[in-house]
Amino acid sequence: MFGINYIKFDSMNYVIYFKNGNIRNEGRGLSFFYFAPNSSIVSIPMESKDFQFIFNETTKDYQEVSIQGQITYKVKDPKQLAEVLDFTVDSKGYYVKDDNEKIQQRIINEAQTASAGVIQKLSLKEALRQLQQIETQILDSVQNSKTVNMLGLEILSVNVLGVTPNPEMARALEAQMRESLQKEADQAIYERRNFAVEQERIIKETELNTEIAIEEKQKQIAEKQMETEVVKQENEQKLKEMDMASNISLEDSKQKLIEIKVENEKKEADVKEYVLHANLRPYKELDWKTLMAINSKGVDPRNHIALAFRELAENADKIGNLNISPELLESIMSTKNK
Description:
Keywords: Coiled coil, Hydrolase, Protease. The protein is of the alpha+beta class.
């Protein structure tokens, strides 16, 4: 009443309260009473905002493409923005003019200028493949733009969602890419088959090498076995020769021993013979009867009787009659036995 009003703002608005053309108060989320006839209130939204864009540009090879993306920004210096654009609100907090559209339009103009400078340096294929490079260059260009800095804005991000050629060129590129992909597929099939053949060759070669190695190893084993057998036979032959040599040496030793033994026995017999001849030489020329008489000590009388009968037999031609009865012989023998 009487032109005195009350107004309140949330924390996402930067408020500048002018009274009689001078700043009376400023800050975020203010609430105050004011006298409407001599007051003016500016409210700058501080939240970040997004908006979409789409540009039609021409590439280096004169092909038309569409660039579609999104830009995110916020107010960095609200007092500077208030110096350039009108964000005055009425007693109910509504904007007298809507200059938010001007902000977006000026950012779009800067982004379009930047995108044109990027796209015109690229061919169609490069533009379709280098979205990250295009996005980075547009962001750098817009952030460093004089217009954006003059407005006191901060560009938070630029996202390029896609670069699209016109439908005819898209179909041509699809056909070309399809042919290229088909060639790559054929090449991949060829390489896969070639790889399979090469792998099969390597496997067969490996198998042959393995068989050769096995044969060579078996040959080495056979040769080693033959060498072992030869060495074994040689050792056996040497053992036999050593055994034979030992036997021969033993037999030679035995033969020498026998010869020595025979020689000794012969010498011993010669000695005995010499001793015997030496002992018997005195009796050599004596009559045997004399010898019997000499050796009569301890001789059996029956031997004397036998000698007597022998004498009788030798001189039988000189004896006329000789009677010896059995009783006489028996009595003689009995007497001697007693």
